[in-house]
Amino acid sequence: MNKFNYIQIFFLISLFLINGCSNNISSNVTTLDPFESLNRKVFYFNKKLDDKIINPISKSYAENIPEKARNSIGSHLEWMNLPNTIINSTLQLNVENTILTSAKFLLNGLTLGFYDLDNNETKVIKKDFGSTLAKYKVPEGPFLMVPFLGPKTTRQFSGFIVDQQNHSNMISGKVDNINLIEQPIKIIHSREKLSDTIDSIYKSSDPYIKMRSFYLQNRRSTVNSNKKNRKLELEKDYEFEKFLQ
Question: pLDDT by residue (tens digit) across 60-92?
């Protein structure tokens, strides 16, 4: 086991301890935010980063890249994330979703995901390790605002770390290298797609509270949803939640 894995395990244990203590103290509180003062500072740091760097680049991306090309990039980024759904569908004993996602990943691998060869006929339910922890009754824990990564719960943040490691272990080194290079593209693509929603949050009287409320509501609906066909009004919310992961 390398040094990174030891650090990862220690960090996950620490998060679960924070999670457990916070839930014991405030088990009946809908929104656990014991670190609000620190979270607000991190939120405004992330907002400044978005204002100065991410948002301007995303606007340039929208202006200079044709819509069809942006759609292909979005399809590719979705394909790159399918291995996490395969792993977590298996852990959640969802055999049908595991098979469908595996088939979709292999088929669209012929185009590296830039073109959906089954014309979006294969409907998969996106899963992550945070939703796996939720299935096995791990409490969501307190709300966290993470530098660069944005809002998360301790449960989802723990799951995010595991998903990143599992993704690297499952796919080939060449594809993993592509994924690493494309992380900045993913951020810019997501920011451009959700510009209206994010800008609306920033314009509110208390952007931090609105971001926290929007994120928690959306994350909970995503974790608790077992339906293949989501309602149309939830689709944009799900895309926003993906951007925040």
Answer: 999 999 999 999 999 999 998 899 999 999 999
Distance (Å, rounded) from C-alpha 27 to C-alpha 30? 8
Give the pLDDT score at 122: 85
Say yes or no to pLDDT of 25 above 90: no
Q: What band does 173 get if pLDDT is binned at 50, 70 and 90?
A: low
The three-state (H, E, C) secondary structure of the chain, written as one string: CCHHHHHHHHHHHHHHHHHHHHHHHCCCCCCCCCCHHHHHHHHHHHHHHHHHHHHHHHHHHHHHCCHHHHHHHHHHHHHHCHHHHHHHHHHCCCHHHHHHHHHHHHHHHHHCCCCCCCCCCCCCCCCCHHHHHHHCCCCCCCEEEECCCEEEEHHHHHHHHHHHHHHHHHCCHHHHHHHHHHHHHHHHHHHHHCHHHHHHHHCCCCHHHHHHHHHHHHHHHHHHCCCCCCCHHHHHHHHHHHHHC
Q: How far apart are the first and last CA of the chain?
A: 27
- Domain-wise residue ranges, the chain: 3-66+140-244
Output the pLDDT for position 3.
45
